[in-house]
Each structure stands twice: as C-alpha cells, then as structure tokens.
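ERR on first pass: missing label on line 2. Operator R.T. fixed the label and resubmitted. Corrected input:
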Amino acid sequence: MNSSDQAGKARGRFITFEGIDGAGKSTHIGFITEYLKRAGKTVVSSREPGGTPLGEKLRDLLLHEKMHLETEALLMFASRREHIAQVIEPALARGDWVLSDRFTDASFAYQGGGRGMDRAKMEGLEQWVHPHLQPDLTLLFDVPLEVARARLDATRTLDKFEQEEADFFARCRNEYLRRAAASPERIVVIDSTQSIDDVREALLSALEKLD
Ligand code: TYD
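pass 2 clean. output:
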C-alpha cells in the first residue's frame, strides 16, 4: 500500500475505524481528521456502508430493512465495491489520506461473528471485492458490552443493528478481537474505556507507525 502510483506520486494512506456500536469511535474520528489536516495531509473522510450516492441508498436499506443474512453481506460488499472504485482508490492514487468509518473488518465482525455467516464465504467476498487493498492501519475501539450499551441508550434512536441483543454484540466483539490478534501489525486495539485524553494519546502513537 505504501508504494507509488504510475505517475510516481506517493500513494496516500488508508485508515479504518472499527468497534461495536457504542464503542465511541465517532468521537475520535473528528480528532484524527483535524490532527492530520494540521499536519498538512489532504484527508478524505468516508463511511461504510455508504460513502457514495449509491452506497448511501444501500446503507438506508441495510440499517432499516430485515433481509436474509447473505443478502446483507452481499449488499455490504456491493456498497464497498462502489466505495473503493469511486472514492478510496482515486483518493489514494492522488496521495490523499482516506479515513473510513468501518470497512471489511465490520463485515467479518457483524455478518460473520454476529450473524454467523460462514467465514470462508466472507473471505471469498473480500478476495473478490478488494484482493489487493487492505487498510494501512485499523483502529479498533474496544469496550465491554455494558459500557457500549449504556452509551447507545443514552445517545440515540437505535437502528436495526443497534437493536440486537447482548450476545450478538459479544460475538461481534470476539470476532473483532480475534482479527486484531491475527493481524497485530495492522489492527491496533484502543481501550475506549479510558479518558478521552488517554484515548487520544493512544491514537497518536498508533498513527506514528504510518510515517
Ligand atoms: P455505524 O457505523 O455504527 O454508524 P452510526 O454511528 O451512524 O450508527 O453503523 C453502521 C452499522 O452497520 C453498524 O451497526 C455496523 C453495521 N455494519 C455491518 O454490519 N457490516 C459491515 O460490513 C459494515 C460496514 C457495517
């Protein structure tokens, strides 16, 4: 990923933000965006599902309609395919830094861990949709389930995923942590029960690895 494109321009960096609902990632994405801008980077902030006009329509369906598990996984990857083609790859080729609120780790955690979709099928979709692209850095915001649930209940009207039971989120969290243990060079686990200042410090030290 840190190679150069055909014009010889330095390729940008791709950072993703993950964690179960209520883990607190949204609070910190703005902080990192501002930090990188101050450091002179051109930052493209995006999200999944979504990130393109078509992806946002798919997001609306995904967050509010009940559907078969495999339909859900396929639509997540359909949104992702569009996002990569329209936003992520062009931005990285320009040398921009792309920050995405969720990416493929969320599919493994939610459709795989949470809903129980076969991991080999998920890996097949990943290979199909982005065989040569992985985030340079994934920040995984981690909190115990009770903390996440309390944060959700305090702040919002719940969507389809947020209405799931505790054991669903326990499976999502376990899958996130399993993936982090399997790819420690890419996925940095951030203890999101810490104070905001301590989380920020952990984020900055994770970012240093990208220079
Ligand atoms: P989220 O990113 O938490 O947005 P908000 O903060 O606005 O609620 O919501 C997206 C939801 O989509 C979240 O519950 C996780 C789910 N999701 C999947 O199940 N699979 C995926 O591949 C992605 C990208 C998201």
